Amino acid sequence: MKAINPKNGQAIAVAMKSPEDAVPMPGPGRASSFSAMVADLKPGESCSKVVDVTIEYVENSTGRMELLNEARERLRSNNAPIIARAKVRTQGTYTQEVTQVVMPTGRLFLLAIITRQD
Q1: If DSSP states are collapsed to H, E and C, what string results for the chain?
Q2: Domain ranges of the chain
Q3: Which of 4 and 45 is assigned the larger pLDDT?
Q4: Nearest-CA neighbor of 73 among 46, 53, 93, 88?
Q5: How many CB atoms lie within 10 A of CB 96?
Q6: What is the pLDDT of residue 65?
Q7: Strand partners, 110
Q8: pTM of the entire structure?
């Protein structure tokens, strides 16, 4: 089906208003929030949250270990209510591990891995 563009008089193709039956539609996707991702874990699955602490670490020439420990504890405590809500919702058991990762470029990240155990 062709239509005419009123601005320049050229013919344009008209798209259908609804998709064809033969076009596969995407199914329900994964959860969009981190809280929902944790609650949707199946036993044995993990999800992670990553925080870039490069700038904080570089700008703080003294007390770097304290900074990392504080940031690590902040990440752990921010995830605690998320894990608690997931436990109530699923009756599951979850673990959380927090570590630091230094990339070859020198960027420093804190990584929290939450795993559903059962």
Answers
A1: CEEECCCCCCEEECCCCCCCCCCCCCCCCCCCCHHHHHHCCCCCCEEEEEEECHHHHHHCCCCHHHHHHHHHHHHHHHHHHHHHHHHHHHCCCEEEEEEEEECCCCCEEEEEEEEECC
A2: 34-116
A3: 45
A4: 53
A5: 17
A6: 84
A7: 51, 100
A8: 0.69
